[in-house]
């Protein structure tokens, strides 16, 4: 049961978790590159189905992460400390990769899917997006970091569910918007020109949040 009278103390962690997800969605990865390829080659409808598959996969990983974390906390008191440290280290690794990308020439976007000429149904594109995200190590590690940001030891379970449901919804909507934008060539061109600045911003954000986790704050 949600205690609305005491919701305020948990809002900063919840919103920071949302912000971490948003920054992660900006960072190029298998899901984003796959979505770009589908939207550019197969059109907006295929991209939208693929995006919904990605969002569904994100929600599934979030639920598995939260339920697994809850069970672990119940059996091991120091589990949250270990997870928090792991999340912080992973965020610092993302920061390193973002800074490295910011200082090297932009690479052409690739297609994470095999290109073929056969007709694929909307369900087929949904399944491809879902399977791509469920097998994406980056998505799994990102969810561990996200949960560890806003769900500390002693935090009510409903806070974790707010993070999972909110982040799952945000992931679906953002990828849906990406599919709409990536079905037009000018949007891709603009994204590539801004890649250095985007990666620099990602590096700063991931560094700050990673250090915050490692410091235990």
TrEMBL record:
Nucleus keyword on record: no
Q: Where are the transmembrane segments?
A: 15-38, 50-73, 79-96, 158-182, 194-215
> What InterPro entries does UniProt report for this protein, alphabetically?
LeuE-type (IPR001123)
GO MF terms listed in the record are: amino acid transmembrane transporter activity
Would I find Ribonucleoprotein among this entry's keywords? no
Q: How does it sit in the membrane?
A: Multi-pass membrane protein
- Supply the alphabetized keyword list: Cell membrane, Membrane, Transmembrane, Transmembrane helix
Q: What's an example GO cellular component term for this entry? A: plasma membrane
User: Where is the protein situated, by its record's location annotation?
Assistant: Cell membrane
Write down the Pfam families for this protein, in alphabetical order. Answer: LysE
Task: Report the protein name in the record.
Answer: Lysine transporter LysE
Q: Which organism is it from?
A: Thalassospira xianhensis MCCC 1A02616
